[in-house]
Amino acid sequence: MKNSIKCDRNTSLDAVCGLFIIYMIIGHAFQWANIKDDDLQVILNSVFYMFMAWFFFKSGMYHRETTPIVATRKYAKKLLLPWLIYGSIGECLYWITCYQNGTLSWKPLIAYPIKDIIFQGTMGGNLPLWFLLSLFCVKIIVSYCDKYEIKHIYVLILCLILSGGGTIAMTNKAPIPYTIFNVPLGISYYIAGYKLKEVQYNRYVFTISLIIYVLLSTLIPSFVDFRSDRTIRGYWIIFIISSTAGIIVINNVFKLKIFQLPELCSIGLNSISYYCFHWINFYIVFILSKTNSSGSPNYDLLYKLVIGSILVLPILAYFRTLLIKK
What we know:
Blueprint: H1 11-32, H2 39-47, H3 51-61, H4 68-101, H5 106-120, H6 130-147, H7 152-171, H8 179-196, H9 203-219, E1 223-225, E2 230-233, H10 236-253, H11 262-269, H12 271-288, H13 299-325
Antiparallel strand pairs: 1-2
């Protein structure tokens, strides 16, 4: 990870990434504070609902054909290693909260981590890291498709069918590992990013996407929990269409220099650090403040989590950068 932004980088994507990382952290802070339907929360969710799909789409924009062996070695280090390290740290902090609450037993120590990895794609101590495992699977599967020259359009159609069936299963609360369905869903956006990486910036494509995004978001608002592939609101297929249109819109809007703020670009450039650390930082704030999990809205905790993130995460990202350099 670099400290400075290279001139040949697409800083517009760095800025979008930074924006979505901030949105994600705020959303998770609301979740930790047991706050639902706050006005700010509702507005942000209605505009940026495509954020998780964007990360797969953006990764697809940088897709390069390579052998499965090379891809496995490269992304095991880049994705699976942080998944294991920061997941383990988060799990240890989760055990501390169990100890504080007097609920520490063999289940949180042994049974829960295994169950969480199988069904949620990561240890419960750092739930957001499911994305790293799923993205790893996406990249490896696509590399095999390239190796055997399977046309991407066929892969896209198959993955849409699988993930479409997944939302039905998950909406009916079927006990199926999330990874089985969020990986095909991720592949769909990954391939879309690869195929549309240049076309998306065509003015006509942008205009059509803007119309679709505004109309569907307003008239038929639909949201899918990407991790579980469960339809939370509206219709799954509408979410697929509107979120893809929304991705194209925001990628075009952020081509304007006025939106490429240095702060956003810096966060986007170091997104993996913010992504891996923020849940850990939440646990630290939670432990130090000795907060009780009452289940009721806790704005005091929300403010602590947000302020703690602003103060701590840039420092942790900086030191992680130094460590990687060495």
